[in-house]
Amino acid sequence: MDDVIINATGTDLVKLWYIRNRKLSFRRFQNRSWIFVSGSDYDLDFLSGQLDCTDLYDYSEHTGKNVYGEVKGLKIHAKPSGISDLILAVENIGMGRKFSIYNADVNPILRFMSERDLEFFSIESPYHHDPPVDSVYIGGRAHLGSPSEIMIDGRVYGAVNSLSLSDVADAIMDNVIIIYDNKDRFFEKILRMITYRGYSIPAIRGITGSTYESYGQIHYNNPRIAISGRIAIESGSFAYSECGLPGLVEISRMSSLPITTASTVTTGTAVSSMEESHAIKNGILIPLYKDDHEQAKCSLTLTETDRGGMVLQPEPGIYRDVYEIDFSSMYPSIMVNYNLSPETITGNGDFEVPGTPYRITGRKQGFLSDALRHLLEKRLFYKSIKHMDTVYGNRDAALKWMLLTSFGYTGYKNAKFGKIEVHEAITSLGRWALATAINIARDHGFEVIHGIVDSLWIRGTGSIDRVLEDIERKTRIGIVVDGHYRWIAFMPARSGLGALNRYVGLRDDGTFKVRGIELRRRDVPGICIKFQAEALDILRKCNTTAEIWARRKEIKDLENLYMKSLRKMPRENFRMGVHVTRRLEEYRVNNLQKKLLEVSGRAGYEINAGDTVDAVVVSRKGGIVDPGDQYDEVDLEFYRKFLLRAFEPIDFIVSSCGTGTESITLRAFYS
Amino acid sequence: MEILSARIQKMSQIMRSEDIDLISSMMLKGRKHAHEISYSGLDTEFGFILSILLEMEKELKRIRESMDG
Q1: Do B38 and A313 touch (CB under 8 A)?
Q2: pLDDT over 80 at A664, yes or no
Q3: ipTM value for the complex
Q4: B39 and A313: CB-CB below 8 Å?
């Protein structure tokens, strides 16, 4: 087996990490870099004069190309570590507006790899597994922040003592990839104990945690640890927790980012890096500051185009024999198949984007569509074979996340290759595709029950294969049957209208697809989840609405049993995830979060904004929330309300079957 | 649509109790086709009224059918 690059570190001197037959070796390379500056001839003359005066930088006149075409300017050479100073100097000389600067803020490792056409974790065939690298998982349990149990690759040590700490030190020394759990600074504390006891481990460096907001939700990034000569990955990182190590490796492979960086950045940054890598490989300049302003448009055009995906509201009730059909990677497919890119959206293109004044030209390959093509094709490939191997499943999950964010990035103000008109064209084509699919399904004798952006729930007697064929032919986007349900119940929202994302469906293979009810939530007590799981187990045997109705007594008995035995339930069943979104002093009302922070603060247990902590509500009125095992009591009244709420969706399913018709309206349910 | 609903809700606060039930039912009817209205780009107020008329027409149809049956 050849040497495979698994990591790279450094800036001016890049150290490549090679693996061969599980043996790690390093090679060092000088890394030189350059930036490209364009502007008017007069301003460029002035800049070159200034550079001549300093004699610090080599430069040459050069013609480069950005996504729109050729640009003339100066190519100024510098060490990667000195580029930020160079940018500052050029900006000052140009008074911040005279020059366009390119290739200035690209990750030096990404640039080094892309310029030399190198790849991390290179594999010859997409079927191949990743090159074997010794890796270990180090985790454990903590009680109110103090490590109480250690786990090394599944082996559990019941105590934190010399034996377990020495084994952790050995695991760090013997492996290349260290996956560690650092929630509540667990791993950091373990490492501190190891060094205190004098066990030998490589040099370590701590990186502080941070709170951030994403899509309206507050999250917390656990503090990270860098271990010299090792690849250290925090197990709570989004990429690792969603896609595992093979998925993380795939992100590193696709984005040209070192695996440790890939584990810490968002998938959006990974896609952005992949686009930058594609640009470098194809000699396209990457702007430092994007200059693609939104075009001026009238308010009517703005309201017409500035919209998201299309949704249909389901009529609450239960439906039998329902197909769920999904467009495969709808938005990325639109970008690739319709050649959507900032430079291909023109006023005089060949193809008119439905519902917008935009036209797309097909004469020139778009940069964005070209950059995403490989990602899309690879994802569709792994999606088709993911059942064969978990590694393929992990890779599919990683690529799916990258594709999901690739669309959002087109509308992001800082995206290097994004443009708001591209974003609008994508959503517009998405709405058109879903509307087209609805019409085709109807023409083939299907009734559309529900639809969300790229999925449709339909029922009828026509040929589903013909429906899919026609939709794919007309829209040029792949579409597949995601599931066939014996029955599916769409729940009502509090307003009384059908909820978009709250449903329970029983598939042909006896498994459920559940969305939006307590069973899927972390912020509800275990008793609710347990009840709904047991109730669905009863309903699993039912193929028809009549059979569900016939089991109503069993459901009622189960509900009564839970209500009666609430007092005797084990305490663990009352734990619920409490998500803290701010610091203690920022809470104005005495809610659960505030009480939890107060109790934890008194116990010396640190909770950060963005953390979710499992806790038991001891007394809601008294404001006692217990994240540990300090109290024996629980607030039964509080949990009774939760339980009653957990009964509602199950009751709705059963009640919907009571009229003898296949679906009933909400009015009938409430009357 | 939400602004419109909020205003009607406010209006219902000072209405007679027998009217409140009816206005709630009408609001539900008006919002039932919010997504189709949004897709079409129709004026929201017009879409709201159209949605109520459509639902009333459906109710009438059901009544006619039950009477015929």
Answers
A1: no
A2: no
A3: 0.75
A4: no
Determine the residue of chain A that is closest to B36 in CA distance.
Answer: A312
Please give the Cα distance from A15 to A237 (Å, whole number).
25
CATH, range A299-378+415-502: 3.90.1600.10
Task: Give the span between the Cα atoms of A610 and A212, in whole angstroms.
Answer: 8
Q: Dump pLDDT digits (tens) for A400-441.
A: 999 998 888 787 777 888 889 999 999 999 999 999 999 999
Amino acid (one-letter) located at A464: I
Q: Which residues contact A317 (CB under 8 A, 6 or more apart)?
A: A489, A490, A656, A662, A663, A664, A665, A666
CA gap A597, A486 in Å, rounded: 46
Q: What is the pLDDT of residues A565-606, one digit of tens each?
A: 998 899 889 999 999 999 999 998 888 899 999 888 888 888
Which among A345, A350, A348, A352 has a CA at the least distance from the CA of A363? A350
> What is the Cα–Cα distance from A645 to A639, expressed in whole angstroms?
10
In whole angstroms, give the CA distance from residue A155 to residue A160.
Answer: 13
CB contact under 8 A, B39 and A496: no
Architecture label for domain A547-671: Orthogonal Bundle (1.10)
Report the pLDDT value the prediction gives residue A62, as an integer from 0 to 100: 92
The crossing angle, in degrees rounded to 10, of helices A267-281 and A108-115 is 40
Cβ neighbors of A286 (< 8 A, separation 6 or more) are: A102, A103, A106, A276, A279, A280, A416
Residue ranges of the alpha helices (H) in A143-219? 162-174, 186-196
| Closest-approach residue (CA) in chain B for A497 | B32
In CATH, the architecture of A33-101 is: 2-Layer Sandwich (3.30)
With beta carbons under 8 A apart, name residues in chain B contacting A431.
39
CB contact under 8 A, B38 and A435: no
The token pair that represents A340 in the structure block: 């959507």
Give the start-to-end residue ranges of the domains of chain A: 33-101, 135-281, 299-378+415-502, 547-671
How far is A316 from chain B, CA to nearest CA, in Å? 11
